[in-house]
Amino acid sequence: MQILRMVLVLAVVGYAGYLAWPFVSPLLEGADPAAAVTRAFAEAGAEGVTPALLWIGAVVLYLIAAALLGAGNPRAVVAYFLGFMADAVLRLALERSRGAPDVAARSEAALVEGGPKSLPVDMGSSLGVDPLWLVLAGLVGLGLVIFLATRRVRQARASGALA
């Protein structure tokens, strides 16, 4: 069970690093923090204070969840799902603010334009599912595995046995 926990810790830390990369990469290139923040938000297409707070909150909560998970604390699930909620709200808000049509609208437009040969390159997936939903489903699955890994297995005691 400890090996599974460590693999999950690495997965959560890796995903938090992936989320934080637009901010971390300019710092590694030698930019000052203000320029790094400006560049990170320009790359992500986020404007305003709320996306920044959600982004930073998601990264911090994922890192807290990884630390709690590494220690075997069952509260890691709570921190992970709070980070997931911040991440999901941020992803959905950015997706909607970019004006991206949903998969059904893109599929219908592709069929009207002449079939599979004219599918747009940014269609995302040949499965007909928006990649955003696949990522969110994968994150929920990871959260469920974290929940299972942090559960304490109760051992049955024989009657009269001391704790």
Give the structure's gist in a few sentences:
This protein is mainly α and 163 residues long.
Structural notes for this entry:
With 163 residues, the protein is mainly α. Helices cover 70% and strands 0% of the residues.
What topology emerges from the helices and strands here?
Blueprint: H1 2-28, H2 33-44, H3 49-71, H4 76-97, H5 103-112, H6 131-150
Helix pairs in contact: 1-2, 1-3, 3-4, 4-6
Give the uncertain stretches in residue-range form: 115-121
Which structural class fits the helix and strand makeup? mainly alpha
User: What percent of residues are in strands?
Assistant: under 5%
How would you spell out the order of helices and strands?
HHHHHH
Shape: elongated
Provide mean pLDDT, rounded: 80
Helix content: 55-70%
The major sheet is characterized as: none
What's the total helix number?
A: 6
N- to C-terminal distance: 23 Å
List keywords for this structure.
163 residues; mainly alpha; 6 helices; elongated
